[in-house]
Structures are given as structure tokens and as C-alpha cells.
Amino acid sequence: MLRVGLIGCGSIGTVLARAIGEDVVKRVRLDAVYDIDHEKSEELSQMLHPRPFIAPDFNTLLHQSLDIIIEAASQEAVTLYGEAILKAQKDLMIMSVGALLQNGLLERLEETAVKCRRRIYIPSGAVAGIDAIKAAALGGLEEVTITTRKPPNGLKGAPFLKEKNIDIENITEPVLVYEGPAEEAVRLFPANVNVAAVLSIAGVGKRKTKVRVIADPGIDTNQHEIKAKGNFGELCCVTKNFPCPDNPKTSYLAALAAIRTLERIASVLRIGT
Ligand SMILES: NC(=O)c1ccc[n+]([C@@H]2O[C@H](COP(=O)([O-])OP(=O)(O)OC[C@H]3O[C@@H](n4cnc5c(N)ncnc54)[C@H](O)[C@@H]3O)[C@@H](O)[C@H]2O)c1
Questions:
Q1: Distance from residue 191's CA to the centre of ligand 1 (Å)
Q2: What separation in Å is there between the alpha carbon of 96 and the centre of ligand 1?
Q3: Does 240 score more than 90 pLDDT?
Q4: Using one digit for the tens of pLDDT, what is the confidence trace for 162-213?
Q5: Domain enclosing residue 73, as ranges
Q6: Residues 22 and 61 placed together within one structural domain of the fold
Q7: Are 78 and 99 within 8 A, CB to CB?
Q8: Based on the domain organization, do 33 and 54 belong to the same domain?
Q9: Which residue from 156, 166, 182, 222 could staple onto 209, CB 3.0 to 4.6 Å apart?
Q10: Ligand 1: residues within 6 Å at CB?
């Protein structure tokens, strides 16, 4: 039985915890949850049967007997807790992947994981195509671009929009609000372009992966289009995601991808690259 701890009891955490509770994932048990907002962990714990232990703080969570801790909280949580989790001899699953592209965090966590003989799992998240990009990267990739198109309320609060004083609330047509490398995009849109971070780690890296962000008032899904060229040929992959009901920034598929990753860890069968 894989013993799981969860940081972040919001949209993704809730879908994930309920799937574990409803036995969608076999051989997995949610033993403990932690959220900086205590009400969120209480609320989630009450929905579940059996009820997981509610850790009052991160250190208490860290001292539970757990095999893996899933971060479904924020980039800050990855930065604050990532290394400590691995050093406490627990595996780590990361949803706020954008954090890994900043201040050499990916490299630091990888080094710690090697030293501590633990693993770091990064689900493919809310996009299709990561399996092909991983394989294609081996043969040489020339170009990888991701265009993320969201309804304006899905981009609300992004630091880039505030910084540049861009108002997208009253737009009537699609607007290209940002174009740049993944390394910069994850800082400017921390809650919106985690998929760009996953893509860059799987493919050509944070500087060569190009990101475009479009605010589109005419859509009600979060859309990601990945285009890649290389020695393998060409790839174009579009995902049109329904948002989670209580968080328009997050796609439901991201939570489903986390559930599948957990299942893969606990299972003897491995499908896909
Ligand atoms: N990899 C992907 O494809 C993908 C897709 C969507 C969202 N995400 C990311 O996953 C994370 C969770 O998404 P969500 O939609 O569930 O968010 P959410 O806002 O619905 O829930 C996040 C929860 O984490 C808690 N939290 C935040 N910082 C914390 C900290 N330092 N310590 C403890 N708890 C903390 C919050 O109180 C909140 O309850 C976000 O960072 C989001 O950007 C990743």
C-alpha cells in the first residue's frame, strides 16, 4: 500500500483525494493532508472516508510515515518544501512545475533526490503530447512552441498583466498578451503555464521552449497547442480542457493526470514513454 501525503487541498488536491478515497486508484492510501489554509484541509478531510490526518503544519506532515508527498499547492510550496521532503526519505510529486525552472531548483532537487535515493514525479498535466516530445528529444528537436489560450477570467491575477497594466476584462477579440521563453513565462504566469514547464523539461529546455499566451473571450475551455519540429518529423497537438468548477485557472485534466501518475507509481504495469 502506497502511503500518500498531500500538500494543497484546493481543486487538484480535492479531485485527487476523492479518487483515492473512492478506490479509483488501487493500492494507494491518503494518510495525511496539509494546507496553509486550515479550513481547506478540514473541508477536504470531512469529505473523505477514512478521514486522513490533518497536519497542522508542514513539519508535522513531514514526520508522518509516508512514501510520497504530492504538492498541489503553489510554486512557493515547491520552493519551500521540496528539498525537505526528499531529505525526509519521501518521494515527491510536483504539480506547480513552474517553480522548477527558477533559481536552479530542478537541478537542486534532482541532486538531492540522487543523494537520498528518492524519486521526483512530474505528471504531464493538462496537455497531450508529452510522451512524444520525450521520445522526439532523443533524436534532436529544433523547435518547440506552446500556445496557451484561455478565457480572460482564467488569466486573472497573473503578475505579468498587473506589471504591464494590461486589462483583459473587457476585450471582445482574442489578444496575444505574451510571447517569450518558458523560463520567463512561468514567473509571469505562475498559475497558468505549468504545462509549458513540463514541456520544457521533457523537450528542449526552459530557454528554447517558446510560450505564447492568448486571452480569448470567445472560448470557455483552457486550450494548449504544442507544435514541435525535429529529426522525428513534426508534431501538432491541441488540448481543449474544461476548467475545474471552482478554479478556472486549473484544467480538470491536470488533476486526472496526477491520479494516473499515482496509479503508475503503485502499479506493476507501465504504459507510455
Ligand atoms: N501541472 C499542471 O498541468 C497544472 C495544471 C493546473 C494547475 N497546476 C498547479 O497546481 C497547483 C494547485 O492547483 P489548484 O488548482 O489545486 O490550486 P487551488 O488554488 O485550487 O488550491 C491550492 C491550495 O494550496 C494551498 N496552498 C498554497 N500555498 C501553500 C503552501 N505554501 N503550503 C500549504 N498549502 C498551500 C492553498 O491554500 C489552496 O488551498 C497550482 O500551483 C497550479 O498552478 C498545475
A1: 8
A2: 7
A3: yes
A4: 989 999 988 999 999 999 999 999 999 998 899 999 999 999 999 999 999 9
A5: 2-122+253-266
A6: yes
A7: yes
A8: yes
A9: 182
A10: 7-13, 34-37, 40, 72-74, 76-77, 80, 95-97, 125-126, 191, 194-195, 198, 244, 247, 250-251, 254
Residues 6+ apart with CB under 8 A from 195: 97, 125, 126, 127, 146, 148, 224
Mutate to test the pocket of ligand 1, among 6, 7, 9, 12 (most ligand atoms within 8 A of CB): 12
Sheet holding 175-181, edge to edge: 175-181, 209-215, 141-150, 222-230, 233-241
224 tagged catalytic: yes
Atom 32, ligand 1: which residue's CA is nearest?
A: 36
Q: pLDDT (tens digit, 9 = 90+) per residue, 28-59?
A: 999 999 999 999 999 999 999 999 999 999 99
